[in-house]
Design a protein that fits this description.
flat, 15 helices, 17% strand, alpha/beta, Four Helix Bundle (Hemerythrin (Met), subunit A), 13 strands, Rossmann fold, Gyrase A, domain 2, seven-stranded mixed β-sheet
């Protein structure tokens, strides 16, 4: 905290270029600052929370902020609506106002200038959300979700961000933290009654509980594969021999001529990445160089990048040329991991009318668009978002995934210690490490002695 934390701050809340704009003001003096340049039916400082007020934004006539009778008339900047929010029931937890004005850049800049002259200052990047976090309006993971929500460009990414912002994600983490805190409390009770050799934490039940917690942590950690793909765009590598029609297929999927198409084999030398939305999920298509043996140094470099794209792809479209492929489809000449989905697609069916496709092979013509909808359906089906839309926890932040990995590793050490008869104080410390790693996600951090004491006295009734 520093001396500027309690300043009244102001910033545009909408991007420039629209017909309307919103300017947000927050701080103890937010309403008083607005009153110095707002002319309505009454004072905003006297207004009730969640009320909307029509009036004018003016530039006071005199050098001071209160016009006098001999000064020229006040200059009106714009007609506005002002929404009033009272502490602590606002986004930041402070007294706040949101001024809706016309979207002219001149009007917005004049409004900001007058508010700053009236006693506010321009907010630094993210300062409204920082204040919301510091004032207990959201935890750290929810604050991070604000950025994800703004950046979301698909239904799935939007659902992911809103679920995290509304606290469902935080509730799961808090439930894990509470269970771990209970284990620590039991173990530390044993330390307090060590002379009586009382065992408050049955070691069999303790192990079962720790294994259940670890299973939940692992499930959250594994969900990062899906969450990160949704957030960044599901990576789809289009691979195949030169002239199989990879670039034509990319152009069809994007509905634009993005990749250069030529009958000359080896035209694509570098990986082209483009995004498109299919049924609420954003896909990141990677058009790659054709895989073949070549002496061309530039083409070889392109093929190396193709192999790299296959490694980072979640879905691989292996494109075959119907005019060149036989009845037996050979195995791919690259490795497919368990976490990847391979779609084998036969292209150029317009050149081979009536051809029967082997089972499991999709057919299409990238040139005419025939079969493209089937491919889109297969791509969408390869991304299971049912858990996401049913409110299950899906991790999308790499910092969170790293913290969960650290928590998992610490819990495994605790389980090993339990198995090897680790002394109670050291076992308790290992579980505290798990709590600390989970706490870094929401900003709770390590547990405090007061939390342990409160848990002990409230749940185990020591001394009534």
């Amino acid at each position: 905290m520093n001396g500027t934390d309690h300043d009244t701050i102001v910033a545009p809340a909408t991007a420039p270029g629209g017909a309307l704009a919103v300017v947000r003001v927050s701080g103890a003096e937010a309403l008083a600052v607005c009153d110095r340049i707002f002319r309505g039916r009454g004072k905003l400082a006297d207004a009730a929370a969640y009320t909307l007020h029509y009036g004018r934004i003016v530039e006071p006539a005199a050098a001071g902020l209160s016009p006098d009778a001999d000064a020229p008339a006040e200059r009106t900047i714009d007609d506005v609506l002002v929404a009033v929010f009272r502490a602590p029931h606002s986004y930041t937890g402070e007294e706040s106002a949101e001024i809706s004005c016309h979207g002219s850049q001149y009007i917005v800049s004049e409004l900001l200038r007058l508010l700053c002259r009236a006693g506010a200052r321009m907010a630094s990047p993210g300062e409204f959300t920082i204040r919301a976090y510091l004032n207990g309006k959201m935890d750290l993971s929810q604050a991070e979700a604000v950025t994800d929500l703004i950046a979301s460009s698909s239904r799935a990414a939007h659902t992911l961000a809103t679920t995290q912002l509304r606290g469902g994600y935080s509730a799961d983490l808090e439930a894990l933290r509470e269970r771990l805190l209970e284990l620590v409390s039991l173990l530390e009770l044993e330390l307090d009654f060590s002379e009586e050799e009382v065992e408050f934490a049955d070691r069999t039940q303790l192990r079962e509980t720790m294994e259940q917690i670890d299973a939940r942590i692992e499930a959250m950690r594994r969900s990062f594969t899906l969450g990160n793909a949704i957030k960044q765009g599901v990576a789809v590598a289009i691979v195949g021999a030169p002239n199989a029609g990879k670039s034509t297929l990319l152009n069809r999927l994007l509905n634009e001529e993005r990749a250069l198409v030529s009958d000359i084999a080896g035209t694509t030398r570098d990986v082209i990445e483009e995004l498109t939305n299919i049924d609420g999920v954003e896909f990141r298509f990677l058009d790659t160089a054709g895989i073949r043996t070549t002496e061309d140094r530039l083409e070889r470099m392109g093929i190396e990048r193709t192999l790299s794209s296959i490694t980072r792809a979640r879905i691989i479209i292996r494109l075959l040329d119907a005019t060149q492929a036989g009845d037996t489809i050979p195995a791919p000449d690259f490795e497919v991991r368990q976490d990847q989905r391979l779609l084998t697609v036969m292209n150029k069916l317009d050149c081979c009318p009536g051809r029967t496709l082997p089972e499991g092979i999709l057919g299409l013509s990238a040139k005419t668009g025939e079969g493209l909808d089937t491919l889109r359906c297969a791509l969408r089906a390869a991304v299971d978002t049912q858990a996401l839309y049913h409110g299950d926890t899906v991790v999308s932040n790499s910092r969170h995934a790293e913290a969960l990995t650290a928590a998992h590793d610490a819990l495994l050490r605790a389980l090993d210690g339990l198995r090897e008869g680790l002394p109670t104080d050291l076992l308790s410390e290992e579980i505290r490490q798990v709590i600390g790693h989970i706490g870094t996600i929401t900003g709770r951090g390590q547990i405090t002695p007061d939390e342990v004491l409160q848990n002990i006295f409230s749940k185990f009734c020591i001394g009534k």
